[in-house]
Amino acid sequence: MAMPGEAYFQPGLFAFLRELRENNDREWFASNRERYEAELRGPFLRFISDFEPLLHTISPHFRSDPRPSGGSLFRIHRDTRFSKDKSPYKTAAAAHFPHVRGRDVHAPGYYLHLEPGSVFAGAGLWRPDAVGLAAVRRAIAADRSPWKRLVGDQRLLATFELHGEKLKRPPAGWEPDHPLIEDLKRKDFILSTSFTEQHACAPDFLDQFAERCRLSAPFMRFLTTSVGLEW
Q1: What is the pTM assigned to this prediction?
Q2: How many domains is the chain built from?
Q3: Which of 53, 164, 170, 227 fits a disulfide with 132 by CB distance 3.0 to 4.6 angstroms?
């Protein structure tokens, strides 16, 4: 846990990632592993641990798992098996906070991304499977008013942007002139909100992140219950 008035993240985290971007090889990483542990991994795991009680005030069915391996923090190592880019390390730090019944990153969840020049948080469903995607589309169409209120909420839109990939044509079974056809074309249902590096290095960043997760809760509740999970 960070001491009162102390930030979890320091500018050194972003300095490390900038240097890693320029020196993305195992020899450099090995000689800078202590920096990785001190500036990135250790602070992020403390952040994840301290976020859990705040997350559970939003919903008790999401998890913030501080285990060093297999928890909320994504591995720094890239999976290069099927990639032309064989750089061994990611040049961003990230964590996900999924539903407790979610099996992978495609479950409803929250997300935090720390990268030089790109600090943001996300909430929603990224690439749900066919069953989940169909369920969300049915929920949107079943009663249009709740969805329209959610995506038209001015307080939400002042902080978040709704984005994600869409189909070029209406999904099978849906008419092109459906009033919500643009939303029914979505393959992702994601809210994103940006921060600066200065925000991330501020003592109140944990509270800022939690507050934005709280603001997105009605949207998350809609998606979570649409795919048959507890809110």
Answers
A1: 0.94
A2: 1
A3: 227
Residue range 4-43, pLDDT digits in tens: 678 999 999 999 999 999 999 999 999 999 999 999 999 9
- CA dist., res. 231 & res. 63, Å (int): 12
Residue 21: domain span: 11-73+87-226
Q: Report pLDDT digits (tens) over 67-79.
A: 999 999 999 999 8
Q: Is residue 106 part of a domain?
A: yes
The domain that holds 155 is classified in CATH as 3.30.930
In order, the DSSP letters of 64-96 are ----TTTSSBPPSB---TT-S----B-SSEEEE
- Whether residue 4 is contained in a domain is answered as no
- Does a structural domain hold residue 174? yes
Q: Is residue 222 part of a domain?
A: yes
Assigned token pair, 224: 């979570």
* Distance from C-alpha of 169 to C-alpha of 107, rounded to nearest angstrom: 25
